Amino acid sequence: ILNVEQSPQSLHVQEGDSTNFTCSFPSSNFYALHWYRWETAKSPEALFVMTLNGDEKKKGRISATLNTKEGYSYLYIKGSQPEDSATYLCASLGHRGSTLGRLYFGRGTQLTVWP
Amino acid sequence: DAGVTQSPTHLIKTRGQQVTLRCSPKSGHDTVSWYQQALGQGPQFIFQYYEEEERQRGNFPDRFSGHQFPNYSSELNVNALLLGDSALYLCASSLKSRRGVYYEQYFGPGTRLTVT
Q1: For residues A18 and A76, what is the distance between their CA atoms, to the nearest angstrom?
Q2: Strand partners of residue B77
Q3: N or C: which end of chain A has fewer CB within 10 A?
Q4: Closest to B105 in 3D by CA, of B5, B49, B29
Q5: CA dist B72 → A43, B31, B53, B97, B111 (Å)
Q6: Facing residues of A59 across strands?
Q7: Please, which residues have CB within 8 angstroms of residue B64's CB and are 6 or more apart in sequence?
Q8: Average pLDDT by consecutive 10-residue portion of chain A (115 residues)?
Q9: What sections of A41-91 are H helices per DSSP?
Q10: Exposed, middle or buried: residue A5 (CB in 10 Å: 0-12, 13-18, 19+)?
Q11: Which of B45, B106, B110 has the CB atom closest to A46's CB atom?
């Protein structure tokens, strides 16, 4: 079992604030980390797939970094907007034996951006 | 491209009943995985289907079973429903690579099951 933790559980920020949250995962046997953005009543939307230590990926105002040696990833949102309000999920991808192809999710960080 | 679709959107059942949930994968995808999200938890892996066979299974009892059809669509069946089966059931599709491509999974909006 790959134990994935996310913090904080929830976050409330004002429009224009920048914010970040953390995903922790076992560093041994790491293969890939997925970030998803999930708005209420919609499908989780894939943001990033990260594989290499030191990876940094960016999509608009959202970026993510990866440290596979210490087992964490940060997601940053610059200049938060109300439409960024969503739950952000990270998941570690299993790649061996009984874990192959399985995503192990954290509980998510629920972000609310106030206008 | 309609993406991953699931039906029904919501379902209410009583304890002991049986339920079938359906999933159509994204066009071009051949692998379907099912996840259960209970309140306050992250999605938990139930099982994965590829080439009409169950390839991986999470820690769920045999009451949970599935099927994949030749067109890659899939069903999740749950027998003898318990109150604890109330959850959001998510379907995810991907394209399986033998060379280790990173199994990017696309999710449907889920089916909300309530067991009373």
Answers
A1: 7
A2: B20, B65
A3: C
A4: B29
A5: 19, 7, 11, 15, 19
A6: A62
A7: B46, B47, B76, B77, B78
A8: 92 96 92 94 94 94 97 97 97 84 94 96
A9: none
A10: middle
A11: B106
Cis omega (within 30 of 0) for bond into B70 = no
Q: Are the C-beta atoms of A85 and A33 separated by less than 8 Å? A: no
- CB contacts under 8 A, A 27-86 vs B, are 31-32, 34, 36, 41-44, 46, 49, 51
Paired tokens of A109: 């960080």
Which of B41, B96, B102 lies nearest to residue A32, judging by beta carbons?
B102
Contact A106 B42 (CB under 8 A): yes
- Tokens 């169950």 belong to B54
DSSP annotation of A52 reads S
What region does B113 belong to: left with phi over 0, alpha with psi -120 to 50, or beta? Answer: beta
Spatial separation of the C-alpha atoms in residues B59 and B61, rounded to whole Å: 7
Give residue-wise pLDDT tens across range B23-47: 999 998 999 999 999 999 999 999 9
Query: What is the amino acid identity at position A65?
Result: T
Instruction: Note whether A70 and A23 are within 8 A (CB).
Output: no
Running DSSP on this structure, what letter comes out for residue A3?
-
